[in-house]
Amino acid sequence: MFSKEESAQLRKEFWTSFGKSFPRKWLLYNTKIKGFAFKFQADRKKASVCLDIEHPEDIHNELLYDQMLSLKVLLETEIPEVIFDATFELEESKKIIHRIYVPFEGKFSVHNKNTWRDCFEFYVETMPKFELFFYEYEDFIRQSVS
Known about the structure:
Blueprint: H1 4-21, E1 36-42, E2 47-53, H2 58-70, H3 72-78, E3 83-89, E4 96-103, H4 116-142
Antiparallel strand pairs: 1-2, 2-4, 3-4
């Protein structure tokens, strides 16, 4: 069992190590669509690459998610393991968001450095697929909230 401080230090080390091992400018929050962001997720039990839709205006939130649902078959062609979750609960805040994500299927814990490398490789393999998909359909996605 790790103390809060040890756990925080390991999380910081995990993300620093990822950034140094795979230096690259990721799209992440730079979609220029409010409440529409790509994220790397990692905790004690799992890791994933995510697209979180959490626009502050409910109607825009729903429109963005519906627009992504209309692209679901195309996204599944590029990333067959993608999961659409209309009611994903964020662990810390208990907030419900729309999340489209790909889970890392290997053994992983941010507390176990031996699992980091496989996770990093998963991130580097998966996130570019999400980014390319976004760039290809960005105009279509954006029109749902413009």
